[in-house]
Design goal:
2 copies of one chain form a homodimer. Chain A is an alpha/beta fold. The first copy, chain A, is built from 11 helices and 11 strands. An 11-stranded mixed beta sheet of chain A has the order 3-2-1-4-11-10-5-6-9-7-8, with helices on both faces.
Chain lengths: 340, 340
C-alpha cells in the first residue's frame, strides 16, 4: 500500500508533515509519496537522516494552494500545486490514498474534478468524526451548502458505510439534525430528507435529533446540509477550546487552585485527549472514487500520522467498493424511475 | 407596572412559578397577575401565606397548553388555556408584559396572532441570550425556520435595538452565522442577507462568523435563520450540561480528585453560574407589539424571577416603541420601492 501525502498545504511546517508520514511508514508498514517543493522535502528528510528510496518517494510540486485561495485554483492557476499533483497521482493509480492538510474547498473541488466522484453519487461530502463520547460521523461538514434531499439521503448511506467499516458498527444509527424531534419539524429540506430516510431500507434511521443531543452519543451518523454541518463542527471545535481555556484559567487562578489542579492532573489530561480531534485523524471525503482525507490545517506530526493510519484502514476496508456499489444502485433506481 | 405570568405551562410545579412571580412583586415592586387553574394558584398562594389582592391577582384558565401540543391549539382548541388567557390579557392592556414557560411554538403563534406583530414587521423572532463570556443575542433561535433575507435584516435591526436597550451597548456589533467568513460563503439566504446587512446604515455589521466564534464574544447580536439558530442554541445548552457533567465525574473519580475538587470549589461554582441560562431570564419574542418573554420550560422560582426582572426592563426601556418605529420605517421603504 502507498499513501500520497501533501506535505506543503497545511499551516504547520513541511517538516512536521514529513515526520508524521515517516512515522506511518515505519509503524504501519506503508510506502509513502511525499508531495511538495523538492528541496524543502529532501531537506526535511535529510534533517531526519532519511534518503529517498522506493518506499519513501518525493514528487516535486512547484506551488502551494493557500488557505485563502479560491477553491478552483486547484484545477486552474495552480495545477502544479502539491494538492493538484497529489490528486493526479491518486487518479493515475500511483498510490492508494491521498492525505492533505490544505484548503478544504480546494480539496473537495480537486478531488471531485480530478479524481472524480463515484458514478451515481451526486456530491462528495466531508465526514467529520466528532470526538465527544462515542465517535459520531457528522456528514456533510461543509462540502455542499445547499444539497437536495436525495443528496442528503446519499450522505446518510455513505456515512453508514463509513462507520460500519471504520468502527465495526453493525447497522449504525443515523439521525438528522433538526430544530425538533417531530417529523413535521424543520425547513423544507429537513422535512423532505426525513421522508426519504424513513423509507430507506438501508439506513437505520432513528429520526431527528436536536442540537443538545449532538454531545450525547445518541447516534453514529448525523446527517446535515453542509451549511449547518459546518457550523456544528466548528461550534464543537470552539467548545473544546473554550473548555480547555476555561479549565486552564480555573486551575491557574490562585495558589489554592494550583494545588487542586495537581490532584486532578491525570484526569484533566485524559479529558483533553478525549476531546482531541487529531485522535481520529482527519475528515474523509466520501463519494470520491478513491480515498481522500482532509487532515486538520494545523496538524503536526501526530495529526498527519493519525490521518495516515485512518487512510490505511480506509483503503483496507471495502468502503470505496461499497460506495461504488451504492452509486451503481442509485443510477439503476433513477433509471427505473425514469422508465416508469 | 403589571406583569402577567402564566404559571401553568412549564415543566416545573405551578408553585415554583408562583414563588418566582411573588419574589418579583416583593423585590421589584411590580404588580402581578397569575394565570392558571384558580384552585391550583390560590392553593399555591395559601401555601405561601399570600392572599390575592389588587397587586397580586389571580385569573382563572381552564386548560394548559402542553409541550407536545400543536402550536395552533392556542388559538383553536385551547383558547381557555393559561397561555391564551394571558396573551389576551396583554392584548387588552390588562398588563404590561407576558411571561410564559410554555411551548415555544404555541407562544410564538399565540403572540403573533393574538397580541399581533408590530406593523411592518414581517415575523416575530425568538432572541436568546447565550451565556458564554459577554452576553450575545442569538436571533432567531427558532421561530422562523425559513425566513427570507429581508426578514433576516429585520432580525438584525430588532436584535440591535434589544441589546442597546437591555445591556446599554452603543451600536451593538452584528454578525451573521455562516460556514466561512468570506462574503461569498453560505447558502443563498446567507449570501443575500450578507448583501442587505452590508448596505444597512442602522446595523453595525461586522460580517460573517463561523461556529467556533460563537463562544468567543466577538459580536453582540448573532443573526441566524430559525432552523440554524435553534440548533446553535440547543447545542450551546447541551454543551453546558456536558461540561458540568464532565467536571462532576472528573471531580468524583477517586479520593485524590475529591481532594483536588475541594480546592477548586468556588471556581467551579463561579463557572457554573457564568454558564447558567437562567441568569439572563428568558428569551424575548421580538417583533410583537407588546413585551412577551419565553422563560425556559424547566424554570423554577429563580428562572421565573429572572424573566420577570427582564420583562420589567423590557417594559421600561423604549424597545417596543423603537420596534414599532422600525416597522413603520420598513413599511415606508416598501411603499417607496413599490412606487418607483
Amino acid at each position: 500500500m502507498r499513501l500520497i501525502v501533501d506535505v506543503m498545504s497545511g499551516d504547520s511546517e513541511a517538516l512536521e508533515a514529513v515526520k508524521g508520514a515517516l512515522k506511518a511508514h515505519r509503524e504501519l508498514g506503508v510506502d509513502i509519496t511525499l508531495v511538495g517543493d523538492e528541496k524543502t522535502v529532501t531537506d526535511a528528510l535529510e534533517t531526519l537522516s532519511v534518503t529517498p528510496n522506493d518506499s519513501v518517494k518525493v514528487v516535486h510540486a512547484a506551488s502551494v494552494v493557500t488557505m485563502e485561495d479560491d477553491y478552483l485554483v486547484v484545477i486552474k492557476s495552480k495545477k502544479d500545486s502539491s494538492m493538484s499533483v497529489g490528486l493526479n497521482l491518486l487518479k493515475a493509480g500511483e498510490g492508494d490514498a491521498f492525505i492533505s492538510t490544505g484548503n478544504t474547498g480546494a480539496l473537495v473541488a480537486g478531488a471531485s474534478l480530478i479524481v472524480r466522484k463515484a458514478k451515481g453519487i451526486k456530491a462528495a461530502a466531508i465526514g467529520a468524526v466528532i470526538p465527544l463520547g462515542a465517535p459520531m460521523l457528522l456528514i456533510d461538514a461543509g462540502a455542499n451548502v445547499a444539497p437536495n434531499a436525495e443528496t442528503m439521503k446519499q450522505f446518510a448511506l455513505m456515512g453508514s458505510i463509513y462507520m460500519e467499516n471504520m468502527f465495526g458498527l453493525k447497522s449504525p444509527r443515523v439521525a438528522l439534525i433538526n430544530n425538533g424531534t417531530e417529523e413535521t419539524k424543520g425547513n423544507d429540506l429537513a422535512r423532505e430528507t426525513y421522508g426519504l430516510l424513513k423509507e430507506c431500507p438501508d439506513v437505520n434511521f432513528i429520526g431527528n435529533i436536536e442540537g443538545r443531543d449532538v454531545v450525547n452519543s445518541v447516534c453514529d451518523v448525523l446527517v446535515a446540509d453542509g451549511y449547518t454541518g459546518n457550523i456544528i463542527l466548528k461550534l464543537v471545535e470552539g467548545f473544546g477550546k473554550f473548555m480547555s481555556k476555561t479549565l486552564k484559567s480555573m486551575f491557574k487562578k490562585n495558589f489554592k487552585t494550583i494545588i487542586g489542579a495537581l490532584f486532578l492532573k491525570s484526569e484533566a489530561k485524559a479529558l483533553k485527549k478525549s476531546m482531541d480531534y487529531t485522535e481520529y485523524g482527519g475528515a474523509p471525503l466520501l463519494g470520491i472514487s478513491a480515498p481522500v482525507i482532509k487532515a486538520h490545517g494545523n496538524s503536526g506530526e501526530k495529526g498527519v500520522f493519525s490521518a495516515c493510519r485512518q487512510a490505511k484502514t480506509f483503503v483496507e476496508t471495502g468502503i470505496i467498493d461499497e460506495i461504488a456499489a451504492l452509486g451503481a444502485k442509485m443510477r439503476e433506481e433513477k433509471r427505473g424511475t425514469e422508465n416508469e
